[in-house]
Design a protein that fits this description.
Oligomer: single chain
Largest sheet: none
Structural class: mainly alpha
Number of strands: 0
Strand content: under 5%
Helix content: over 70%
Order of helices and strands: HHHHHHHHHHH
Length: 256
């Protein structure tokens, strides 16, 4: 690789680790486009799983015990099924088809929530923020659905954070629980993905060696992201997440 290639990969894995440990959503979609600039698309997809697993491990340490255990116990079995289906889709489906769908979903959701937040804050402060839609999102059916979709989206395009952030934002967890739950969820998902990607041939020994070489940069990014999370208010945190989802949606549609 050229020095430019190395710099691009270093920036990608560092930024992904900061986002993963600071906001909890968007790390994969940030990482994948940058890696695809210097690597074949499916190699970039394969490299993303072990790279993010390293930042996940740092995140699990940073957020130890600050996750929702009940939600994770329901989410994980169906997310694992989503990884299996997603691996099959990687083989047979063009990435652009899935990216379009996720991008449209992200734009619609983020736009709706940002407008709703502005309306409540500035035009109708007395309006409750915990309506029936929130209660419905907390049902087991929605937990299972989002776990399954999160597994598929994460495997096909490292976009599972979008699906899971929609679910977690509706639950209105505090920033530490929000990120802690997502970090542990995706640590397990990325572990599953490494085995799945190896099975379909997009993770090789060379890819794993490359990730190992960049691991110090990933660790530094994870520490920085955790520090930023502790200094951001819940309201600002929510706005950052929504804005990030919106921008990710635009990025997905643009790249697709």
């Amino acid at each position: 690789m050229s020095y430019t290639d190395i710099i691009i990969i270093a920036f990608a894995v560092f930024g992904s680790a900061v986002i993963k440990n600071g906001v909890g959503v968007g790390a994969g979609i940030f990482l994948l486009p940058f890696l695809a600039l210097v690597l074949p698309a499916k190699v970039a997809l394969g490299l993303g799983a072990p790279a993010m697993l390293i930042s996940d491990i740092i995140g699990v340490r940073n957020y130890w015990g600050e996750w929702d255990k009940k939600e994770l116990l329901i989410l994980m079995p169906f997310a694992a099924l989503g990884v299996l289906l997603g691996s099959y889709l990687v083989v047979i489906t063009p990435d652009t088809v899935f990216k379009h769908g996720v991008g449209v979903f992200a734009l619609l959701f983020a736009s709706h929530q940002i407008v709703k937040t502005i309306r409540i804050r500035y035009f109708n402060p007395a309006e409750t923020k915990t309506g029936t839609s929130i209660e419905r999102m907390q049902s087991r059916t929605y937990t299972v659905l989002f776990g399954f979709l999160g597994g598929i989206a994460s495997t096909v395009a490292h976009a599972g954070g979008l699906m899971m952030s929609v679910y977690m934002l509706q639950k209105r967890s505090n920033p530490r629980t929000f990120v802690g739950t997502l970090v542990l969820f995706f640590a397990l998902i990325n572990l599953f993905k490494i085995f799945a990607y190896s099975g379909i041939g997009i993770i090789t020994d060379q890819v794993l060696i490359l990730v190992l070489a960049f691991s110090p940069i990933i660790i530094i990014g994870g520490v920085l992201g955790n520090a930023l999370n502790k200094r951001v208010s819940q309201e600002l945190f929510r706005l950052i997440v929504l804005t990030l989802i919106f921008l990710i949606g635009l990025r997905l549609l643009w790249l697709a």
